[in-house]
Amino acid sequence: MSDDEDREIVRMVLAGDDAAFGRIVSRWQGPLVSLAYRFTRDAGRAEDLAQESFLRAYRTLGSWRQDAAFSTWLFALAMNLFRSELRRIPPRTVSIEDVGEPRDGRSETPAVEEADRDRAVRAAVAALPAKYREAMIVFYFHRSDVAGTAKTLRIPEGTVKARLHRGRELLRRKLTR
Amino acid sequence: MRDEEIDRILGAEEDILPSSGFHASVMEAVHREATTPPPIPFPWKRAWPACAAAALALVGSPVLLVQSGGIGPSFFESMRPVATSVGAPWIALAAAVTVGSLLLSRRFAGERY
After folding, report:
1. What average pLDDT does this structure show over A86-92?
2. Which CATH number fits domain A3-88: 1.10.240.10, 1.10.1740.10, 3.90.1750.10, 3.40.50.300?
3. N or C: which end of chain A has fewer CB within 10 A?
4. What gap in Å lies between CA B78 and CA A98, rounded to an integer?
5. Does domain A97-175 have CATH number 1.10.10.10?
């Protein structure tokens, strides 16, 4: 489905065809739930947040100015919602100071060691201060696309790069063996 | 840990799939939203004359009272027995405690949420 098709569907919904909104949901439910999951690490809450994002999108569909891709508008809207909801009820995380360093894997199998290290890195990202956490999560969600991250977070690209740099620095400091 | 390693780990995260009922659940919520009548807007057109009159009375009455000499030391003197007989100091204290506890609880709640 292309941007033009998104525009056409939005036009139909705005003209009163609510069922057409289902095609938007079909197309974007996977990415939106995945993005929410990266923030919450809770599949149920991720779906709740994604559903609320779709509802908010439905209510404010007329405010999409169509000068950017529909996905850009949708992700930015969702990000705003995630931000306020996660501030209201924070996901269960530990402080970055309390994140365990990856264990010394010399006595474990490579697969166990790798899984352990991945978990430690994700826990450390979740424990970062909000602005670095957001930048890192959205950046990797967008497959390392700085421009896409900037649009989703509605901040300049330079700010995204600075936050990524600082976020990685904090992670490195915590995770260096 | 090097940046490349962090990139590799975070970049390799798999997307998750929504549950099978997610789409239907969203569309049900959208349908509910579409069929719910919009909230009735506050009738400002009808209310504003009353609001303006109330504001005028609130501001104008004390001014008129002062100008007509109705409020002065003698006025407060004459009100003292009435205030004492209805327990005004206790009412004022109770109101202050209520407002104080309300502000305190809001502050605690604000820190949590």
Report:
1. 85
2. 1.10.1740.10
3. C
4. 68
5. yes
Instruction: Output the pLDDT for position B84.
Output: 82
Choose between A162 and B37: higher pLDDT. Answer: A162
Rounded to two decimals, the ipTM of the complex is 0.81
Q: What is the pLDDT of residues B42-71, one digit of tens each?
A: 888 889 999 999 999 898 887 777 777 766
pTM score, whole prediction? 0.70
Q: Which residue of B has its CA nearest to A89?
A: B113
- Give the best residue of B16, B19, B32, B35 to mutate against chain A (max A CB count within 10 A): B16
Contacts of B18 in chain A (CB under 8 A): 29-30, 33, 47, 50
Q: 3-state SS of A7-64?
A: HHHHHHHHCCCHHHHHHHHHHHHHHHHHHHHHHHCCHHHHHHHHHHHHHHHHHCHHHC
